[in-house]
Amino acid sequence: MHRADTYGIIDIAQIDSVDFSQVAEDRTTIRKSIDGSKFVIKWYHNEEPTFITDGSVTPLQTLTHAECLALMATAEWTEPIE
Questions:
Q1: What value does the mean pLDDT take over residues 40-48?
Q2: Residue 45 domain flag
């Protein structure tokens, strides 16, 4: 059975509260918004990180894979190709 991923959009101010051992990224591989104010983390939907469940980090958005792909294609996350 395929496990679905969940994506969280997190305010950069909360980066020090993220336990990167619980998500698929680390500080060097996170995707940041163009302005650097937000970043994305990913986890399996049935394995929500404890730093989210205990309220240490509150995602600005929680997205499915398809929703995350659509968001990453926006001008907020991707520089236009000239």
A1: 90
A2: yes
Does residue 77 form part of some domain?
no
Establish if 79 belongs to a structural domain: no
Burial of 14 (0-12, 13-18, 19+ CB in 10 A): middle
Query: Of 24, 29, 8, 27, which Cα lies nearest the Cα of 16?
Result: 27
What's the per-residue H, E or C state across 27-74? CCCCEECCCCCEEEEEEECCCCCHHHHCCCCCCCEEECHHHHHHHHCC
Q: Which domain holds residue 21?
A: 5-72
Amino acid 3: pLDDT: 62
Total count of domains within the chain: 1
